Please model this.
Amino acid sequence: MNEAGSPARNIERDAAAALMEPLTDLVVRAGAAIMAVNRRAMTVAGKADGSPVTDADLAADNIIGDGLAHLMPDVPALSEERAHSATLPYRGSIFLIDPLDGTKEFVAGRDEFTVNLALVTNGTPLLGIIGAPALGLIWRGLVGRGAERLRIEGTGIGAAEPIHTRQIPNRGDPWIAAVSRSHGDPRSEAFIASRPGVIRERLGSAIKFGRLAEGAADIYPRLAPTSEWDVAAGHAVVTAAGGKVTDAKGASLRFGKGQDGFIVPEFIAWGDPSAATEPY
Model:
């Protein structure tokens, strides 16, 4: 991680494109390390905020942290598991990492957990990769260059399939809302309920962003606090796929700037950006 006061590096779109394959490889390797952990025998500890951390979180974090230090040693890397050593605000580009998003799902024996890796430049997610190792899927995107879904095949990946968000449902047709399996909140529920006939798809972790990006859902609201590393990769993937992510008033989100520490107070991910102009 860069020392405070060191020159900031800005990674723009062309340079980010060259990083997509090596970063995807890190996500695949981290996912394989998670899958190698015996859930019945692993250590589960509680962090200061009450959330769990496991051997799998730490194994994935080590792989990504070491890989980024080798690949891009001059770009800071902010991980959920190493946030205590971060110095805010960040300038230029940073990596935001959640080595195991959906730890509760993982501990419960479910498959809805992900490895999230994002490249943020000047406060805005530019590149995002979401790996779902138990489902054998990767969603990834580079803003301005599109998004795609890949299948994990052993320790490698298969051919890329372009994906795109879908248009707002026709009047009278139901909205599909991706909602959290483990983290419901009254504001999000009220927002969803304002769309008559809405269909709720309950999912864990950043898989909700992936489903939105591939056109399987219309909205994903989280009108309660979450962390930047939970959101940044999905933000980039959804945006690259043609969608939009805003706060509840339609304003852009900023990452790595320290206004609220590492907290995103609220967000709504929209498959169709034109829907974000509607009252809500």
The chain has a mean pLDDT of 89. The longest strand covers residues 93-101.
